[in-house]
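Morning, I've got a small favour to ask if you have a moment. I've dropped the whole record in just underneath, so have a look.
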Amino acid sequence: MLCPRYRPLDTFVQLDSNKHYGQWSGREIEAFLEETRVPLRLGLQSKNGPLIVPVWFAYDTQQFWSCSPDDSLLVTALRNQPEIAFDVSTNDLPYRGVRGRGVAQCSVAPDNSLLEKLLHRYVGNTQNALADTLLKRSGPEALIEIKPTWLTSWDFSARMEGIETIASRNPGAGL
């Protein structure tokens, strides 16, 4: 459960499909979050100071879902300080994305179903060495549920029109 000093449930963002949150409508934000396969960059406070952690995510029912080993630094930090910031943005031109603040809640996962869903979303299947490694970890996974309290979107497509993507200008260069 969330600590009482954090926002009550009625202050979480409930996207209205026709209302604009920055550049995009709620419908456009949800479409972007569904189609985008970049990690969510999660800003949080650890015992040693601020930290940014990229995590695979799924967006469903107006909240983000992720997972991590239950004993990880990420989960420990979120349990101690659940208020977070987040960013989901493209790594190549045109730059566009969604950013905001929210509250994270961690619970022990009853199984690996979310991890399997994330593997399918980001890797395409669970028939590979990465999936084997992640699915065979000895400890339990934690489900990370992130409910936005504020979010906005931006899209620099119009101002970057005509500029080639970094990937096309520098084939093979890491993004």
Remarks:
- The domain at 10-152 is CATH 2.30.110.10 (Pnp Oxidase; Chain A).
